[in-house]
Amino acid sequence: MSGVRVLIGTRKGAFVATSDAGRTKWDIAGPHFAGWEVYHVKGSPADPDRIYASQSSAWFGQVVQRSDDGGRTWDAVGNEFAYEGDPGTHLWYDGTPHPWEFKRVWHLEPTRENPDEVYAGVEDAALFRSSDGGQTWSELPGLRSCEGPKWQPGAGGMCLHTILLDPTTPGRIFIAISAAGAFRTDDGGQSFKPINQGLHSQYIPDPTAAVGHCVHRIAQHPARPDVLFMQKHWDVMRSDDAGDNWHKVSGNLPSDFGFPIEVHAHEPDTVYVVPLKSDQERFPADSKLRVFRSRTGGNDWEPLTAGLPQEHCYVNVLRDAMAVDQLDDCGIYFGTTGGQVYCSPDGGDNWAPIARDLPAVCSVEVQTLP
Amino acid sequence: MIRVELPLALRELARLDGALSLDVPQPATMHAVIDAIEARFPALAGTIRDPVGRQRRPFLRFYACHEDWSSLPLDAPLPPPVAAGDEPLLIVGAVAGG
User: Is A79's CB within 8 Å of B51's CB?
Assistant: First the structure.
């Protein structure tokens, strides 16, 4: 493998960083879509030159961009996200009914097989699919049947932010919503069921309710797809049965509040999180930016600090802002709300910045190039 | 021909250099102007008017002849000087943000 391409979405545009397999010298291109919020940028596993980007603004709404040349040039594709039928209401922050309204695309997930097939997770929470390269979008409305009127937004909005396309079970998709929880379909999206058994959330009236949990992120290793790891609002969780049951694996973390969670490309039991002090103080504990790694599938965690700021650090790492590459020595990447993007080319042992002064980073994805 | 001035972000999105003049069927309305913009620049579809609700995006304003026409229904006729191309229609982004 010859190198990597890091796709960075920020509050004021998108950037593309490239490097050879050494991952020490970087070329950075951008900003693309300067001045616009770019919540997510992701490449197609089937065709690395095909990349999708979610571009949005409070003034001009949602635009979906598509590149067919690895991010050098872009063209706007379809941006009509119409809910199927009358979507009705969900709960607002104060508990009153609130009409379902499309606001933006949080996450784009191209399928492994077809660069023209891509899923979009949106706010207000719903799952859409395009089969024509993003030109048209159709909702998979079965998801909202899972007690949708009871869903409530998290602080960032009622967003569908995680889409995991199961690599071995056809038709199986995991999704997660803040603050509704995790859901799974086994029939390609016709029907979904909540998979929140074992979650405990003291900030909702029934801490073990079927829906209402603020799931921040789910991660999966493709070689062991029934094992899922979850960073919840509080708690790091693990499931060994495709989400049917969860148990807590926060172990010795200094805090189990955080946003991203990722799994090493070649070690299914090696997991990464970035703990924050608390949901009130969303910055690293002790003002030290530390990634925590577990080599045991949770519970036992070690801090990774080499090359990361260990004083006066008050950034956040958002849920879509961490990724891993597929090189033999797995690279780990994350971006911060302070505009830094870090890479560790050795599984987390050592870190160095790719960029230090970008706008606040919303998302980081990595393509491993042939 | 109706003359339209777009915000910089939309001119960049449309890859539009210079002035914009549109042939709009009479009676000219905001809906008709936006339809013509979206037909010529598909990348701008939904950026001025929500594609589902077909309402003006709340952070955009429509000015013409030194007056604010934003509150008029989108199917109301535009002022004659705008329809005749004597005065430009200004589509303006609200001053906000950080």
Answer: yes
pLDDT at residue B35 greater than cutoff 90: yes
User: Distance between CA atoms of B92 and B6, rounded to whole angstroms?
Assistant: 7
The DSSP 8-state label assigned to residue B39 in this structure reads: H
Phi, psi dihedral angles at A193 (to 5 degrees): -135, 145
In a domain? residue B39: yes
- For residue A116, cis peptide bond before it (omega within 30 degrees of 0): no
Domain-located, residue B21? yes
Residue B53 sits in a domain whose CATH number is: 3.10.20.30
CB contact under 8 A, A63 and B57: no
For residue B98, tell me if it sits in a domain: no
Which of the residues A33, A55, A59, A136 would you substitute to probe the B interface, choosing the one with the greatest number of B C-beta atoms within 10 Å? A59
Give residue-wise pLDDT tens across range A265-316: 999 999 999 999 999 999 999 999 999 999 999 999 999 999 999 999 999 9
- Residues spanned by the domain of B67: 2-93
Break chain A down into helix, strand, coil percent, rounded to 5: 5, 40, 55
Determine the Cα–Cα distance for residues B86 and A280; give it in Å rounded to an integer: 56
**ipTM score assigned to the predicted complex:** 0.94
Nearest to B50 among A61, A75, A76 (CB): A61
Rounded distance between C-alpha atoms, residue A229 and residue A239, angstroms: 7
- How near does any CA of chain B get to the CA of A24, in Å? 33
CA B48 to chain centre: 7
Structurally, chain B folds into a number of domains equal to 1
Residue B87 lies inside a defined structural domain of this protein: yes
Backbone phi, psi, residue A262, to 5°:
-140, 160
